[in-house]
Amino acid sequence: MLYITQLIYIREGQEAIFHQFEDIAIPIISKYNGQLLLRVRPDEKAIIESSVEQPYEIHLVKFTSEQDLENFMNDEDRKRFIHLKEQSIESVVLIKGDKL
């Protein structure tokens, strides 16, 4: 099992565009043996300590393999709407890991 954590930083005023992309991309995850485990939009009260900028959203996703993740990233339906992601997202911190 491969676990992906994303800290997603949105361009100001592009939240609706980001949501359009997510409405397309998130359902595609299951097509590639993946599962969205957690999607959080943290507010300042939820952060106890931080030395990084507060992300707009945090996603935790699991895939059965690295190849499944790669197949998801290369999905044609997802790629047709990648311009929405590029327009709305300032940056993403992607962390790959295993369950211990």
Output the keywords:
4 strands; 35% helix; 100 residues; globular; alpha+beta; four-stranded antiparallel sheet
Report what the structure shows.
The structure is a single chain. With 100 residues, this protein is α+β, with helices and mostly antiparallel strands. It has helices spanning 15-29, 66-73, 76-80, 82-88, and strands at 2-10, 34-40, 57-63, 89-97. A 4-stranded antiparallel beta sheet has the order 2-3-1-4. The chain is globular, with a radius of gyration of 14 Å. The model has no long low-confidence stretch (mean pLDDT 96).
Task: Pick out the low-confidence regions.
Answer: none
Q: Compute the number of strand runs.
A: 4
User: Cα-atom Rg, whole angstroms?
Assistant: 14 Å
What would the average pLDDT be, to the nearest integer? 96
Relative strand content: 25-35%
End-to-end separation = 11 Å
Main beta sheet: 4 strands, antiparallel
Number of discrete helical segments: 4
Query: What global shape is seen?
Result: globular
Strand adjacency order, main sheet: 2-3-1-4
